[in-house]
Amino acid sequence: MTAEITLFVNPTAGRGRGAHAAQPAASALRAAGFSVRTVLGADAADALARLRTAVREGTGAVIAVGGDGVVSLALQALAGTLVPLGVVAAGTGNDFARALGLPVREPARAGRLAAAALKEGRIREVDLGLLAGAPGRAEAWYGTVLCSGFDSRVNDRGNRMRLPAGRFKYDLAILAELASFRPFPYRITLDDGPVIETEATLVAVGNSSSYGGGMRICADAVPDDGLFDVVIVGDCSRTTLLKVFPQVYKGTHLGHPKVAVHRAAKVTLEAAGITAYADGEPLGALPVTARCVPGAVRLLV
Asked: What is the tens place of the pLDDT at every residue in 63-85?
């Protein structure tokens, strides 16, 4: 394995924690004898192009420093390659790292773990979701949860709001969406089986267990079993949704009679006027098809 490691950094992650996390992570890697090259970009597209160049030129590993957004970007360059991925989780949500048992907001420890894993060959092959949408839409990889429905409507509204800043904006977006809440008519296809036509509050397709900074929407999902957990929250009333939604943080919502869980390797979601999000990033309007690809990325653990 080449001794040069690529540090892929989002300096704005976690309100600046990404920039602060890069230095202790780099120091831990250098102390272990690795040469460290840092990759940044003017924007996401530029950063991804630079990272793909580093992978093509033969980097020994990529260490993503930031939140789920920078991990998701790294997955686009690493999926299907032999180059391993390390994660220094320094973002707001960090759901990918949490699901894989990696350190969160401990950059020096995460750097030491990645260095030791490289030296000792500790690799875990992890599944990823591969997304295909409408004709002309590029394929994309994701590692955590594909979500659609009430939660994606909240994201849509929050992203349109300029004020207030921070988490409070999304709290207001939840209240606004509740005021106009109604279930959505879905068409869901699991593993090329018959189409399921149903009214649903939301549908989540989990490669791993959580999104939104620890909301365990797909609490039982295992990221290396070759299957998605598909969680369908049915036609809830506002009152039921207000009771069920807080349970998502502990994963106890899965036992509610309005919640159904399926397992499948391929899922197609169709619903009018609904945006799909994966790893917290907007993908565009449904329909979308997700396929679970076993062992698509090699993770340093």
From this structure: 999 999 999 999 999 999 999 99
**What pLDDT band is residue 248 in, cutting at 50, 70 and 90?**
very high
Band (pLDDT 50/70/90 cuts) for residue 91 is confident
* Count of other CB atoms within 10 angstroms of residue 257: 7
Stretch 158-168: mean pLDDT: 74
- Is 299 contained in some domain? no
Dist. CA 45–CA 50, nearest whole Å: 9
pLDDT digits (tens, 9 = 90+) for 114-157: 999 999 999 999 999 999 876 667 899 999 999 999 989 888 88
For 225, the token pair is: 């079993």
Residue 178 has a pLDDT of 84
Same domain, 81 and 192: no
**Would you say 14 and 66 are in contact if contact means Cβ atoms under 8 Å apart?**
yes
For 255-259, which contacts have Cβ atoms below 8 Å and span 24 or more sequence positions?
258/201, 258/233, 258/234, 259/231, 259/232, 259/233, 259/234
Q: Say if residue 174 is in the same domain as residue 285.
A: yes
Residue 20: inside a domain, yes or no?
yes
For residues 210, 61, 43, 109, the Cα torsion angle rounded to the nearest 10 degrees is: 60
Is 229 found in the same domain as 174? yes
- Domain span at residue 87 reads 4-121
Q: Structurally, how many domains does the chain consist of?
A: 2
Half-sphere exposure of 255 (CA within 13 A, CB side): 4
For residue 278, what is the enclosing H or E element?
A: strand 275-278
Whole-angstrom distance, CA of residue 259 vs CA of residue 266: 20
The answer to whether the CB of 128 falls within 8 A of the CB of 146 is no
Predicted confidence at residue 135, as pLDDT, reads 64
The reply to whether 147 and 259 lie within a common domain is: yes
